[in-house]
Amino acid sequence: SYSRMLVYKTCPGQYYDRYVLRNQIPDTKWPATVFGDSLHKVLEHIIQWVQTDEPYKAVSKQLDTKFLECFSEFQKQYQKEKKWKVSRDYDEKRMMKAGVDFSFNLYDLMKSYYSGYTIKSEEEYATDYKKGKIDVDLNGRIDIQIVKDIIVGVGDLLTGSLLTYDAL
After folding, report:
1. How far apart are CA 157 and CA 37, in angstroms?
2. What is the rounded CA–CA span in Å between residue 103 and residue 50?
3. What number of CA atoms fall less than 13 Å from residue 119's CA on the CB side?
4. Strands 161-164, 134-148: parallel, antiparallel or unpaired by DSSP?
5. Running along the chain, 168 residues long, what does each successive block of 10 average in pLDDT?
6. pTM of the entire predicted model
């Protein structure tokens, strides 16, 4: 998957530990993990709003608070279970602003370019595409799938990347 390749490119040792040895610590939840979980939850709402053509005014009110609600909900759950950990440089205010801003940008992108397409979130997928000399292999959990008869684009929330088939 794209995420695995990015981990390997960043640090082969981390890749080996995470995917080969599988020595992850499942009991600890860091703010960055909760940030990602919250974006995934918001993405589910964004997909629904784009596909049901909700008015922008109604959506913007919800986008203003949805990320904060999701983050707070996850944070409370993990604090209650004593899994929540923070580092010295944890800046919750900055993180909340970034999450809300990213939510608006993601909605605008989906609404502007992919209205009329089917958008799916968090699905396992395995396929490959060939176009000329370019071969794309999709294998694993995909954060965003943009579909019109076939998958025409995929997105990764970790990197903020969106790859469309037409761009190849």
Report:
1. 10
2. 13
3. 26
4. unpaired
5. 78 76 67 86 86 85 91 90 83 90 85 76 70 66 76 70 60
6. 0.65
